[in-house]
Amino acid sequence: MISIGFLESNSIARGVEAADAMLKAAEVRLVTAKPSCPGKYHIMICGEVSAVESAMAAGKERTGGSLIDDLIIPRIHPQVIEAIHMSVMPERVRAIGVMEYYSVVQAVIGADAAVKAAGVTLLEVRLGTGIGGKSFVTLTGDVSAVEASVQAGTREAAENGLLISKIVIPHPHPDLIPTLL
Questions:
Q1: Is 97 helix (H, G, I), strand (E, B) or coil?
Q2: Sign of CA pseudo-dihedral 98, 103, 104, 106
Q3: Is residue 136 within 8 Å of 103, Cβ to Cβ?
Q4: Which residues contact 161 (CB under 8 A, 6 or more apart)?
Q5: Which of 75, 80, 130, 154 would suit a FRET pair with 116, their CA atoms being 20 to 30 Å apart?
Q6: Minimal CA–CA distance to 143: which of 94, 178, 176?
Q7: Bridge-partner residues for 138, per DSSP?
Q8: Closest listed residue to residue 74, CA positions, set 23, 109, 115
Q9: What pTM, to 2 d.p., does this model score?
Q10: Phi, psi (degrees; rounded to nearest 5) at 176
Q11: Mean pLDDT across the chain, nearest whole number?
């Protein structure tokens, strides 16, 4: 099973340096490394748990005092990584769920919890770029599966005060679907 490491810095320069250190420290694959709003830099890597742990330690050291948040998920669902790259195009879109967060890390945690909770397909995990630093997750599946997934995917963020909103649309209008993909 693949694991991911996520690191967020409030310095773009330190974030770039941390990404380089992470990739040099262990056999990991870079999922994403880019600036996000407002002036943050986030890095996501994947690989074996021990390699991700080593790379994360090196990255955290390089961020100095600019580290905002970090996370390791030992057994991430593969759909989360695919949806971060917006590479998922389901054959059929049924009910739609949207989970919106104040935190990039909470979006990754929420996406993983949602897809593990029920038989849904993640459409996208948008991580803070171009939306004021907020993040959101969109998913599809049968109505009951989407409802269960949205509930599971927002539980932790709601407890931490990092959930903005969540919705389930049982039968979305066909003209809405292309705007979600």
A1: strand
A2: negative
A3: no
A4: 102
A5: 130
A6: 94
A7: 98, 124
A8: 109
A9: 0.84
A10: -75, -35
A11: 91
Q: Position of tokens 């705007």?
A: 179
Amino acid, res. 125: V
What residue type is 121 in one-letter code?
T
**Alpha helix positions (H), the chain:** 12-25, 49-62, 78-84, 104-117, 143-160, 177-180
Q: What spatial distance separates the first Cα and last Cα of the chain, rounded to whole Å?
A: 27
Tell me: the pLDDT tens digits for 111-163? Answer: 999 999 999 999 989 887 777 778 999 999 999 999 999 999 999 999 988 99
Neighbours of 147 (CB within 10 A): 18
pLDDT tens across 1-21, in order? 789 999 999 999 999 999 999
Can you tell me which residue has the tokens 């599946």?
141
